Amino acid sequence: MIKKSLFLMLALVPTMLWAQFAPEAGVAGTTAMHCDSSAFLAWATGCTIERGPIQIGVTDSLVSYGVDAAALGKADNRVVSLGDGGTAVLTFASPICNDRGPDFAVFENPFHNVPHCFLELAFVEVSSDGENYFRFPAITKVPFDEQMDSFGVMDATLIHNFAGKYEVFYGTPFDLDEVEDNALLDKSKITHVRLIDVVGTIDPEYATYDAEGHIVNDPFPTPFYSSGFDLDAVGVIHDVAHFDVPENEMETIAVYPNPVKDILTVKAENLQLVEVYDLVGQQIMLSENAVLDLGSLAQGIYFVRVTADGKIFTKRVVKQ
Predict the structure, then answer these.
(1) What are residue 22's phi and psi, to 5 degrees?
(2) How far is CA 42 from the centre of its chain?
(3) Residue 12 pLDDT class (50, 70, 90 cuts)
(4) Of 119-133, 242-256, 272-286, where does mean pLDDT reach its minimum?
């Protein structure tokens, strides 16, 4: 009888309580990427904003904080606000392409308001022609029985594939493998990234919904001229210009074998420094030697940054 009662109690626990996604920046298991990470090869070079209202359903006045150009280049906490339901379309000097791990990251300006962060979220969509867009399957497990107030905080472990998940200077990474395949989407040549502000109200008339049909509850209202998602930057991790450059085309620098199980060799003239970074931009190895022992590292993707003859070269390496 006790076992049966326990089973029934567990069955009644909302499934959202069991969902745990990556935690906040600085916490073990986070996927937050600092803007100084050597993983970033490029940044957005074009941005067009279509601003939304300061408070949807109350006023038609549009937000006015920031300018489109604030979203260009490296994340620097100089932002442009989208307003309720506003959009931003980013373009790049070289198209983003799909490779192992995350392919780009979006930066917003959330701040700590203990115990978590004040977050304003946005949906992320990609296009390879500027006309047909496809959305990352964003998921929220934040309860929506009570409206989060204007300065409410959000537990990062309850949200996934929303831009704005991490605090200022830390980007939220996106992996193109998570977007459903479609004949109208060429993942090897993503030319546009579109961000759409989440209207955080739980009022069904204006609410927005995640990929599982749940209402997205984030701070609302934010009736300010800087309302809604505040876009800082979009950093590129994989792009066509840097994709799979054959090592035999590198006249002065080579890193091999790749994938690697233990010993990694760097071939370079006038080698000065070798640095190894993980996906979140944390330096985990520093050496002046041409031979590195990676045997103790966990399997995954790393970035090897080589300084030689006054030049810097970064290579993605897969650790088996």
Answers:
(1) -60, 140
(2) 14
(3) very low
(4) 242-256
155-188 pLDDT, tens digit each: 999 999 999 999 999 999 999 999 999 999 999 9
**CA dihedral over 219, 221, 223, 225, signed as positive or negative:** positive
Q: Residue 150 burial (CB < 10 Å; 0-12/13-18/19+)?
A: middle
Q: Are 108 and 32 in contact (CB under 8 A)?
A: no
How far apart are the two ends of the chain, measured CA to CA in Å?
Answer: 49
- Tell me which H or E stretch contains 3: helix 2-12
- Burial of 19-50, coded b for 16+ CB within 10 Å and e otherwise, reads eebbbbbeeeebbbbbbebebbbbbbeebebe
Whether the predicted pLDDT of 248 surpasses 50: no
How does pLDDT run across 22-46, given as a tens digit for each residue?
999 999 999 999 999 988 989 999 9
Using left for φ > 0, alpha for ψ between -120 and 50, and beta otherwise, residue 150 falls in alpha
Q: For the segment 91-100, what is each residue's pLDDT rounded down to a tens digit? A: 999 899 998 8
Coil vs helix vs strand at 7:
helix
**What pLDDT score was predicted for residue 17?**
47
> Is pLDDT at 192 greater than 90 in this prediction?
yes
Which residues face 33 on adjacent strands?
Answer: 171
Per the structure block, which two tokens stand in for 173? Answer: 């990474």
Buried b (16+ CB within 10 A) or exposed e, 91-104: bbebbbbbbebbbb
DSSP state of 161: S
Residue 203 scores a pLDDT above 60? yes
Neighbours of 88 (CB within 10 A): 26
| Residue 317 Cα to chain centre, angstroms | 20
Order of strands, sheet of 87-96, starting from the edge strand that comes earlier in the sequence: 46-50, 87-96, 190-197, 122-127, 134-135
